Amino acid sequence: MATEMQLFTVASLLRRGRALDRLSSVLTVLALIIGLAPLLGVTAQPLSAVLCALLVLLGIGQKYWALRVALDAELFQRLAERADQLATQKIDLDQALVLLQLQPANQPARSWEERSRGALGLLRRQALCLLAQLLVAVLSLLGLPWLSITG
User: Is 24 exposed, middle or buried (0-12, 13-18, 19+ CB in 10 A)?
Assistant: First the structure.
C-alpha cells in the first residue's frame, strides 16, 4: 500500500521533468534556428542540416514524454493530497483513464508501486531523449569545426 509520503515523493520526482523539458526546448529552438538559417541566406551545410533535424526529432520525442510525465506528476500530487482515500481514488482514476481512452478497459488493476515505477519509467525515457539530444549537440559542436576544416 502506498503511503502519502511515497506518493508525494513520486510527484516531486516527476516535477523534475519540467527542468528537463525546458533545457530540451532551448536545444530544439536553437536547432530550428540554425536549421532554418539558410532561408535567411546563410550557406547551408548538409551535415549541419541533418544534425539539426536529429536534434529537433529528439526534442519532439522528449516533449511527448514530458507531457506524459507532467500529467502523472499532477495525478500523483492529487493522490498524495488525499492519501486517506486511495482505494476510491484508484477506482476513480482507472474509470477516468478508460473514459478518456488513456487506458484499455480490460487492463488488470495495478498497484501503486507498479504505477509509481511506470511513471518514473516515463521520466527516465524523457531524460534519455534529453541525454541523446545533448550528446548530438555536444558532438556537433566539437565535430563540425573539424569536419569543415577537412572537408
Answer: buried
Which domain does 142 fall in, by range? Answer: 4-150
Q: How far, in whole angstroms, is CA 122 from its chain's centroid?
A: 7
HEC letters along the chain: CCCHHHHHHHHHHHHCHHHHHHHHHHHHHHHHHHHHHHHHCCCCCHHHHHHHHHHHHHHHHHHHHHHHHHHHHHHHHHHHHCHHHHHHHHHHHHHHHHHCCCCCCCCCCCCHHHHHHHHHHHHHHHHHHHHHHHHHHHHHHHHHHHHHHHC
| C-alpha angle 139-67-10 in degrees, rounded to nearest 5 | 95
Angle between helices 17-36 and 46-81 (to 10 degrees): 160
CA separation for the pair 69, 58 (Å, rounded): 16
Q: Output the CA–CA distances (angstroms, integers) from residue 25 to 14, 22, 55, 91, 115, in the order listed.
A: 18, 5, 10, 36, 27
- How many structural domains is the chain composed of? 1
Kindly report the pTM of this predicted structure.
Answer: 0.87
Here the cell at position 73 is 506528476
Residues 50-87 pLDDT 10s: 999 999 999 999 999 999 999 999 999 999 998 888 88
